[in-house]
Amino acid sequence: MEGLKGLLRHVPAYVLLQRIVGADRLRYRCIEEIRPGETVLDVGCGPAYYFPRLPQPLDYHGFDTDARYIDWAEEHFGGANASFHCGNFDEAAARSLPPIDVVLLLGLLHHLSDEQCTRLLNLAASVLSPGGRVISVDTCFEPTQGRISRWMSANDRGEYVREPAAFEKLAMQSFGQVEGKVINDATHIPSSYWMMRMTAPNGPWAE
Ligand SMILES: C[S@@+](CC[C@H](N)C(=O)[O-])C[C@H]1O[C@@H](n2cnc3c(N)ncnc32)[C@H](O)[C@@H]1O
């Protein structure tokens, strides 16, 4: 498993595996949320291989802690309306951004502890424009999944694969409205994902 994790830091291998597994189709469903002309923040963007599928025009800001992913994304997609930043998305980064219409957290929350998720979701809530939304999708454990899907969840690179209720509980600390659904049919290999749409920030930054 360590060998696979190392291989996935090699960007072409990561992108190829996403396509073989069908994880790209899951991302495409999430980005259907975005409308032309919107401002998008993508935290944990990885190589952002789904960038060409985003509606244009768009003002896009991607963040990831892995320099290999960010360098690849910058080389392939960087431009006047697309910037990629290597590092944690923190308070200083949040202050540097314009109001954000859509925050993407695609495959990120299951890599973060509860405390890290809470901090990130609060930050995401703080940068939203009026009517803005946060879209997340993560590998999950759910009661109806079969053995292969459960194995996929148990062996994911993320150390915090949760049940939907646990993801939802984290989201509800920062947002007044949280809608979620299990997706079992996106990938070619049986796998279960939990997608959430978070709106109406309920912190001090609420409208
Ligand atoms: C499963 S990958 C998803 C990448 C991309 N969003 C996608 O859907 O293909 C998770 C990404 O989150 C990044 N990551 C993990 N912890 C992070 C953090 N604290 N801040 C920003 N990125 C982080 C990892 O480097 C990795 O690229």
Write the layout of secondary structure elements.
Layout: H1 2-7, H2 11-21, H3 23-31, E1 39-43, E2 59-64, H4 67-77, E3 82-86, H5 91-95, E4 100-106, H6 114-127, E5 128-139, H7 147-154, H8 164-172, E6 175-183, E7 193-201
Parallel strand pairs: 1-2, 1-4, 2-3, 4-5
Antiparallel strand pairs: 5-7, 6-7
Bound molecules: S-adenosylmethionine (SAM).
S-adenosylmethionine binds next to strand 2.
Short account of what is shown:
By secondary structure, the protein is of the alpha/beta class.
3D architecture notes:
By secondary structure, the protein is of the alpha/beta class. The chain has one domain (2-201): Rossmann fold. It contains eight helices and seven strands, in the order H-H-H-E-E-H-E-H-E-H-E-H-H-E-E. It has helices at residues 2-7, 11-21, 23-31, 67-77, 91-95, 114-127, 147-154, 164-172, and strands at 39-43, 59-64, 82-86, 100-106, 128-139, 175-183, 193-201. The protein has a seven-stranded mixed sheet, with helices on both faces. Strand 4, helix 6 and strand 5 form a beta-alpha-beta unit. The protein is globular and about 45 Å long. The N and C termini lie far apart (46 Å). Residues 27, 43-46, 63-66, 69, 88-89, 106-108, 111 line the site of S-adenosylmethionine. S-adenosylmethionine binds next to strand 2.
